[in-house]
Design brief:
- The protein is of the alpha+beta class.
- 41% of the residues lie in helices and 19% in strands.
- It contains 33 helices and 34 strands.
- The strands form 10 sheets. It has a 4-stranded antiparallel sheet, with no helix packed on it. Strands 2-3-4-5 form a 4-stranded antiparallel sheet, with no helix packed on it. Strands 6-7-8-9 form a 4-stranded antiparallel sheet, with no helix packed on it.
- Helix 6 crosses helix 7 (436-449), helix 13 runs antiparallel to helix 14 (540-551) and helix 18 (690-708) runs parallel beside helix 21 (754-764).
- The longest helix has 41 residues, at 866-906.
- It is flat.
- 32% of the residues are buried.
């Protein structure tokens, strides 16, 4: 491949000594030619005296002696480890390989630590090393000799004491290049001689010939990126892989050195020489070291010459490091070549209209798609301006997805270029990037071209959806081709568009409803939300049943519809999606609309709340919908309040059953209700998720509102001409709804909001429901106030008898009610006296509170309660006398105890007991006497009874335990408050604590703290 394009993509600058900018760096004036390496942030060169110099980016030099009696011939810097490999001559011209750890300074002398020294074993005379190759893991080193021998050194060269050296190749042709290609197992070794190119397999110990031509010394190098061997000959540069010779780049002229920099190949060519000059071991006899030398940099990827320059003093070394190429001349001058940035290169290529090369360059430099599309756009504009419209369209097509389509469309709107525009629009649709306007424009193009065949192919015979389906259907609808629109929607399973045409255009509601049922739950959910209102208006019963099946998880998928004309339906690719469907459906329902069987699909049903708004003008159907969904989704046992027992609003129920249910509801005992019920209507029964319970509560609340709401008044009712039969029917319907309402309120499985239900019952004036909820919430006072407000004395007395034992505050309220007016007092005097008698017998209220309740008005007289007050005064007098007697007895007993304690403290006690209190025998010494007047033999006492009387010990310990418990309870305020809260008489609890002296202990504890 000839390299005819040449550019200048590198900037050349001379490197000066940092200490003396007027001259070149001194270190490069005495180095060995071509004995240099780089990597890991530094350059390494060697001079003729065996000294190695390590140069950093600031041209600071660190030197050390590598070979005392010889010179360095080869240097290799590893990339993965900071190890430097050198080859040099020792005494008697022995070739020695040394491994230097640049991260570990030598403690005894300047320079790095020498980790390993290996002598190259040669049979017979010693020959110089002409090539070197090192594996990065330091498991193998290959050494090529001038006599054509290749020595392979194997082993862990950094750890093992001994290494294995083996001659893997031996011939008369000098070795000019070596290189390892690493494999997962073992490695390949490239061997270049002056006559051949060989490949040695280090695993199978076999050698194969890659080429019958070799290369000169310095003209064979391994590309570290591609692991290919490059050999430069006079006519071209060749690349070799284990499979053989690969591509070649024609580059005529002799070469003395090649190297790689990134994806560039750096060539050093000597000056032109006479054609009769001969080559010996790769060196031209007539070439002088100081002759003008040419440097060429080739871009091997894009196949052009990136830089070319001459150096008058010849090139000593080429070193690549720090993102630049350093050229060292034989006279010691150093030049740095810096690559231009990619944008500058592209500008040069744009000026020369080399857009294809610019595109390739942008690809190689990993430009993003947007930048590459911009270059392609410029190329297309260039071809368009030249009049090559077909070629320009070919480039514009490549920019689809990045370039705005309107930019291209505007250029080809001319009628003469409509064919190119059609091609572009087809590609735009094939890429799935066309919008509605593009589809419309393409259809118009087909119309103008009168290409009916392509139009039919675009609409009917294309098995892949390559156009905006919604736009195509819209165009067909506008043209009146509803059959074609239905065909497209049905073929590509665009259910939303299909239903739109059937409902809005054709008005075939029954087919639309049947189509929804066949689609399954996901599509039915989405489309019922959209079209449910219209369908309920025209087909209320069928639509309600479909909604019931959907929300009850009973929707079955019928046989899928298939379009009559055209090919079979492909997989859906349309724009419409199920994004608006319920999340539960999207997560769990899995089905294929193409099925031909009535399969029951398992799915999580959507929320009934989603569809409640569709029944705005159809409350009776909403009741039917909610009742059936509730019965299907949350079935309960027979006899429960809700569930399967719920009936349609039109189903007849005997009115008498309503009254029986109401009386049963209020005939229950208060204790049957949950003690903790306050704002919650019931408790959960059975496993149920929180979300499912929320759905059930929503259905419950809606049904309650519907049951309590009055049916809409008919026209005849508004005119006052309602017939008796119609009135009876409406009354019967109200009774049925009340019965259902009580069943809902009695549902213990739904933790409904009792306050919300109470508000609804109040708004509807449903007294039975109000009383039921008050009773459930233990708001007995409100029940009493309700009947007081209704002025129903019988209900008031019934409420007092039922709830009075649980709520004593009902009695003052009842007394106030009886005495609120003279008329009521006169009619309820007997009841008032009964209440007073009950209060007196049960001691429910203090007399003062009774008097205060009756004295709120001037209706009641003192004579009415004279008997009650007299009895209370006599009872309290007797209680006071009894309490005084008991207090006096406690005072005398306490005084007696004090005297006994004082006698024990001040008066000596004489013990005259003659018998042991334990064994009953005569008392003899040693004996033990206690102040409680009990005496014992010492032998009759156990060790634990040394200080306590065995007979009095139990009683004393009981007292001590009681005292300790009182001390402990003095800090337990929670026990005191709990006992105070649960007690009927709180004052009695406080008096008990004072009597037990617990309060005194509490004060002592507080004072000590």
């Amino acid at each position: 491949m000839a390299l005819q394009r040449q550019f200048n993509f590198f900037d050349k600058a001379e490197v000066k000594d940092p200490e003396d900018p007027s001259k070149s760096p001194e270190i490069f004036k005495s180095i060995e030619p071509k004995v240099a390496t780089s990597g890991r942030g530094h350059m390494v060169v060697a001079d003729r005296s065996g000294i190695v110099h390590i140069i950093d980016k600031g041209l600071q030099v660190e030197s050390f002696l590598a070979y005392e009696s010889g010179r360095v011939t080869h240097i290799k810097q590893l990339r993965q480890r900071n190890i430097l490999v050198t080859v040099g001559e020792e005494d008697d011209e022995v070739q020695v390989i040394k491994l230097w750890d640049l991260d570990k300074p030598d403690r005894n002398k300047p320079g790095p630590t020498l980790e390993r020294s290996i002598r190259v074993q040669q049979s017979g005379n010693a020959f110089p090393v002409s090539a070197l190759a090192v594996l990065e893991n330091l498991s193998q080193i290959a050494v090529g000799l001038a006599n054509g021998t290749v020595v392979l050194i194997s082993g862990d060269l950094m750890r093992e004491r001994t290494t294995a050296q083996k001659i893997v190749h031996q011939n008369d042709e000098p070795i000019t290049g070596l290189g390892f290609k690493e494999q997962q197992r073992g490695a390949f070794l490239y061997i270049a001689t002056t006559a051949k190119v060989l490949l040695y397999n280090t695993v199978y110990k076999s050698t194969q010939t890659l080429d019958e031509q070799g290369g000169a010394l310095g003209c064979a190098v391994l590309n570290d990126n591609t692991q290919e061997l490059a050999i430069a000959r006079d006519e071209a540069i060749y690349f070799y892989s284990p499979d053989g010779r690969g591509p070649a780049y024609a580059f005529d002229g002799p070469k003395t050195f090649i190297s790689f920099y990134k994806s560039y190949l750096v060539l050093v060519s000597p000056p032109a020489i006479p054609s009769h000059a001969s080559r010996t071991f790769g060196v031209k006899e007539t070439v002088s070291a100081n002759d003008t030398t040419k440097l060429t940099i080739i871009d091997t990827v894009n196949k052009f010459t990136a830089y070319s320059a001459t150096f008058a003093q010849g090139i000593c070394s080429v070193i690549c490091e720090w993102g630049s190429i350093y050229i060292v001349e034989n006279g010691g001058r150093v030049y740095r070549l810096d690559e231009m940035d990619t944008s500058t290169k592209l500008d040069v290529l744009f000026k020369k209209n080399m857009y294809l090369l610019a595109i390739n360059l942008a690809h190689n430099q990993k430009y993003d798609d947007a930048s590459i599309s911009d270059i392609i756009k410029k190329y297309g504009d260039h071809l368009y301006n030249k009049g090559d419209y077909d070629g320009a369209m070919g480039q514009y097509v490549r920019t689809i997805g990045r370039l705005e389509p309107s930019y291209v469309i505007r250029k080809f709107l001319d009628a003469q270029r409509i064919y190119n525009l059609t091609s572009y629009l087809q590609e735009l649709h094939s890429s799935g990037l066309a919008n509605a306007d593009h589809t419309t424009l393409l259809l118009n193009c087909y119309t103008k071209l009168k290409d009916v065949k392509r139009l039919d192919e675009f609409i009917k015979t294309d098995t892949d959806l390559t156009f905006d389906l919604e736009t195509a259907i819209q165009v067909c609808r506008q043209a009146g081709y509803h059959e074609h629109a239905v065909y497209l929607a049905e073929k590509f399973e665009e259910h939303d568009l299909y239903l739109t045409v059937q409902i809005d255009d054709v008005k075939q509601y029954d087919k639309a409803l049947a189509y929804m049922r066949r689609l399954g739950p996901i599509e039915a959910d989405k489309n019922l939300q959209k079209y449910g209102k219209v369908l309920l208006t025209h087909l209320p019963e069928q639509t309600t049943q479909l909604l019931v099946d959907l929300c009850s998880a009973k929707l079955t998928r019928g046989p899928s519809p298939s379009p009559t004309p055209g090919n079979a339906s492909p997989a859906p690719h349309g724009n419409a999606s199920s994004a608006t469907a319920s999340p539960k459906l999207n997560q769990q329902a899995t089905f294929s609309p193409k099925g031909r069987h009535h399969d029951h699909v398992k799915y999580a049903p959507p929320s009934p709340r989603t569809f409640m708004s569709l029944f705005v003008d159809l409350p009776s159907y909403l009741i039917t919908f909610l009742e059936k969904v509730s019965a299907n989704r949350w079935p309960v046992a027979s006899g429960s309040a809700t569930g399967a027992t719920l009936k349609s609003p039109t189903t007849g129920v005997r009115p008498s059953s309503v009254h029986s249910n109401v009386s049963n509801a209020y005939g229950r005992k208060v204790g049957d209700f949950n003690d903790k019920a306050s704002t919650s209507g019931g408790s959960k029964v059975g496993p149920s998720t929180d979300q499912d319970m929320e759905e059930r509560k929503a259905v419950w609340n809606t049904l309650l509102e519907l049951y309590l709401a009055d049916p809409p008044r008919t026209e005849s009712e508004l005119k006052g001409s309602m017939m008796v039969a119609e009135m009876n029917r409406r009354n019967k319907e109200r009774l049925i709804k009340k019965e259902k309402c009580l069943k809902l309120l009695n549902d213990t499985e739904v933790p409904y909001d009792t306050n919300h239900a109470l508000v609804l019952c109040h708004m509807a004036g449903f007294d039975e429901g109000i009383v039921f909820l008050y009773e459930r919430m233990k708001m007995y006072t409100d029940i009493l106030r309700l009947w007081i407000g209704r002025d129903e004395t019988t209900k008031v007395m019934e409420c007092l008898r039922k709830y009075g034992p649980l709520e004593p505050s009902l009695y003052p309220l009842t007394l106030s009610y009886f005495s609120s007016s003279p008329e009521r007092l006169s009619s309820a005097t007997t009841d008032l006296l009964k209440v007073l008698d009950h209060i007196d017998q049960q001691d429910l209220l203090p007399p003062l509170q009774v008097v205060q309740a009756l004295s709120q008005t001037s209706v009641a007289t003192i004579g009415m309660i004279k008997k009650y007050i007299g009895q209370r005064i006599e009872t309290e007098r007797k209680d006071r006398i009894e309490d005084q007697k008991q207090i006096e007895s406690y005072r005398q007993e306490s005084e007696k105890k004090r005297r006994e304690i004082e006698d024990l403290k001040t008066t000596a006690r004489i013990f005259q007991v003659t018998k042991c209190s334990a064994c009953g025998g005569s008392l003899d010494l040693p004996s033990v006497h206690f102040l409680c007047r009990h005496s014992y033999h010492q032998r009759c006492l156990s060790d634990s009874a040394d200080r306590e009387c065995p007979k009095c010990m139990v009683e004393q310990r009981t007292v001590a335990d009681i005292r300790r418990m009182q001390e402990a309870n003095a800090e337990r305020h929670d026990l005191f408050l709990s006992e105070l809260e649960d007690a009927d008489d709180g004052f009695e609890v406080i008096a008990k604590y004072f009597g037990n002296n617990t309060m005194a202990f509490a004060r002592l504890i507080d004072s000590s703290n």
